[in-house]
Amino acid sequence: MTQLERARKKEITKEMILVAKSESLSPEYIRNQIAQGKAVIPFNKNHKPKRVCGIGEGLRTKVNANIGTSLGSKSLKAELKKLKICIDSGVDTVMDLSTGGDLKKIRKAIISKSILPVGSVPIYETVINIVKKRKHISKITEGDILLTFESQVKDGVDFATIHCGLTLEAITRMRKEGRHIDIVSRGGAFLTEWMLLNKRENPFYTNFDKILKLAHQYDVTLSLGDAMRPGSVADATDRAQIHELITLGELARKAWDYGVQVMIEGPGHVPINQIPTNIILQKRLCHSAPFYVLGPLVTDIAPGYDHITSAIGGAIAASYGADFLCYVTPSEHLRLPTYQDVREGIYASRIAAHSADIAKGIKGALRRDIAMSLARKKRDWKAQSRLCINPEKFKLIRKNSSPKDDFCSMCGIYCSLKVMDKLLN
Description:
Layout: H1 3-8, H2 14-23, H3 27-35, E1 39-40, E2 55-56, E3 62-67, H4 76-88, E4 93-96, H5 103-113, E5 118-120, H6 122-132, H7 142-155, E6 159-162, H8 168-177, H9 186-198, H10 203-206, H11 208-218, E7 221-224, H12 239-257, E8 262-266, H13 275-285, E9 291-294, H14 306-319, E10 324-326, H15 339-360, H16 365-377, H17 381-387, H18 391-400, H19 416-424
Parallel strand pairs: 3-4, 3-10, 4-5, 5-6, 6-7, 7-8, 8-9, 9-10
Antiparallel strand pairs: 1-2
Helix pairs in contact: 2-3, 4-5, 4-15, 6-7, 7-11, 8-12, 14-15, 16-17, 17-18
């Protein structure tokens, strides 16, 4: 049985106990959230990640990092190094979005080396393998798509993005309304091309029952993808996006009926004032299923700083109820991320997640900030290093400032904390 089915039977699994321990919550609370579809535990029996992760309402906001090759950079060694950076930097999950090299070999290597849950986007491999054979994307069969998904879940993928809410009607709505940027989802673009050339409905939508059967067999969490997510803040919350969201809500219920864990993917590029509306709509239309957002980026004019535009949107989205943030690196829209880009993206997203957890009142979130404040008051640099989100960077900056006393080089002997300490004590 899946985690969802066992939770409904009031069984508390080992994975639920591990999640409860990491969240400082009761196992019964975790079980109940999963039983209601408000939380998921991505845990493929063919992978069994050591660092078990719960995603959903009432839990810490989780962070995902994308890694993977491209046509211009096919090094497995480089991606495995990025995986280590992800693990060491404290992300909760990783996704393999490889599009260059031997995709199956790369995926299996990442899964075997990852102590974190691993996600994937199966349509990438389907399309790329067909193109390698010098066949046109229109020649892909529904059988090709299902075989790729089956191969990936057998290999141990813990969660998979399935663009099942993209329909011909959604494409029609997008074209009628008009967008500044049509479709920025790579998987969505692949499927749209296939659908329009073949004049047929989305195979993920028409074969959703078969997808559910395979997901159920390995207890793979389905991440229902947002192919219609806006790629410009000016396109946010339009008819195409909301039409797809309604469809995803219907499919989420279908997945639950089949005993399959599910979460919903969301935008994208969204102006600050529309973020609360997007969260409320998703939770209402998708029956409080966990919400996984890419950013959202709150402005389009900051290439090189999109880890910051994403963190701003992510903090707001999570404070209103988003459960899972996908990191964005400084090189978003520009290139495949470097090792340093990966680090910067992770920490920006983790800061956003923690900031939101304080606002949401997540258990233990504020306690760490209070401990940091008390350590600052005492000028206890060792404690501050231990409590901060990135001790390595903390130590480097502190070391380079040539400290000679218990204050920093900003205020020196005029340190307000030291002055007040003398006055009050």
